[in-house]
Known about the structure:
Elements: H1 9-18, E1 23-25, H2 26-36, H3 45-55, E2 58-61, E3 64-67
Amino acid sequence: MDSSKTLTERFLVALFRRGQAPYLPISYLKEQGDKVLSKGETDKLLTMLTEMVKQGSLELKDGEYKLLNDPFA
């Protein structure tokens, strides 16, 4: 059975829900992702964050991201 974990929008939303501040830096998101995701998955992080900003799910301010709405709620 393959136990590898991939980066998904749902995973990112969960990180924002767990975060200690309204705005989270990409370094925090990458660090947390590296703990549980398969090797190399966080390389896709910036692309996914950019897409979520375009969709209106996230806000980018001063290099940090904030969850505006949960697309899975």
